[in-house]
Amino acid sequence: MPEGDTIFRTARNIGRALIGKVLTGFYSTYPRLTRFNDDTPLTGQTVDQVEARGKWMLMHFSGGGILASHLLMNGRWHIYRHGERWQLPRFQMRIVIENAQYQAVGFRVPVAEMHTTRTLERDLRIPRPENDLLSADFDAAAALERLVSRGGDTIADALLDQSVLAGVGNVFKSEICFVNGLNPFRSVGTLTCDEAAQTVRSAQRLLRANVLEDSGDLIVTYRGQQRRTTHNSDPTASLWVYGRHGEPCRRCGEAIRRRIQGDDARVTFWCPRCQPMPDGCDVDG
Ligand SMILES: [Zn+2]
Question: Which pLDDT score, from 0 to 100, does residue 47 have?
């Protein structure tokens, strides 16, 4: 599933292609979006802003409509110049938004809804900017309070909860636990104040490091970007533990372990030596 950093980069890229330019076309396979467009044509409007909110992307149109989309597991947004060959088959297209130069194409986007400022405000699934690790308005103190309030949850599950910290997905979950030396199966209630605060800080730092400006003002059509949490420039050494089951820990050499965790059965990776379960914690980690 795309995590907050991926959505952030996608929104930035789409913004570069669409913001401030008059829209020349809008197409969708979703009847509700088509109906909205029939009633309030998007053609002729401009895109004022494209923003990421956790794993949601919001596209603000000059007529007041806000398109909120969520990619879940398989959705993708691509940008193409007119005439450029699409990288995914046409039948997977759900939404096309175009101006004279570019097309933003949503493939297999499973959730796409038109909002107004008011309905957006009321929609509790879409994170507020102050909860979003990548937002300039992120409020770390409030996030720490929310994290600490999840005392009975495991650290890994609390990190995935988008109402605690918006933007962390399964890869960052394991990486954040590793860089803090925290066993992912500990309950949040066993964290010291320092450990909890450090967890929030490192979550913000790791996500931000993955959205650093790398392409200037150029508009790039979509290409996968290597996510990195280590300081190693070798692309095969970009993550500490995620996806490395059985491989040696980059710090201590111990074999990385892997286990299915939580109600959603998400996979967790950790180093048993660098991330020990503290004395008194009776969970088998
Ligand atoms: Zn280790």
Answer: 97
Contact 118, 71 (CB under 8 A): no
Q: Identify whether 3 is a catalytic site residue.
A: yes
Lookup: tokens for 84 = 């450029």
Each residue's pLDDT tens digit, 123-181: 999 999 999 999 999 999 999 999 999 999 999 999 999 999 999 999 999 999 999 99
pLDDT at site 281: 66
To the query of whether residue 21 is one of the catalytic residues in this protein, the response is no
Residue 266: CB partners within 8 Å, gap ≥ 6?
Answer: 156, 160, 170, 173, 260
The helix, strand and coil proportions of the chain, stated in percent and rounded to the nearest 5, come to 30, 25, 45
Q: What is the C-alpha R_g of the chain?
A: 20
Strands 66-70, 56-61: parallel, antiparallel or unpaired by DSSP? antiparallel
Q: Is 84 annotated in the active site?
A: no
* Total-model pTM: 0.83
Residues with CB under 5 A from ligand 1 (ion): 249, 251-252, 254, 271, 273-274
- In angstroms, the Cα distances linking 109 to 2, 45, 179, 245 are 12, 22, 33, 31
Query: Of the segments 100-109, 202-211, 220-229, which one has the largest average pLDDT value?
Result: 100-109
248 Cα: distance to centroid of ligand 1 (angstroms): 8
Q: How far is the CA of 244 from the centre of ligand 1 (A)?
A: 12
- Between the CA of 262 and the centroid of ligand 1 the distance, in Å, is 23
DSSP state of 276: P
- Catalytic residue, chosen from 2, 98, 113, 173, is 2
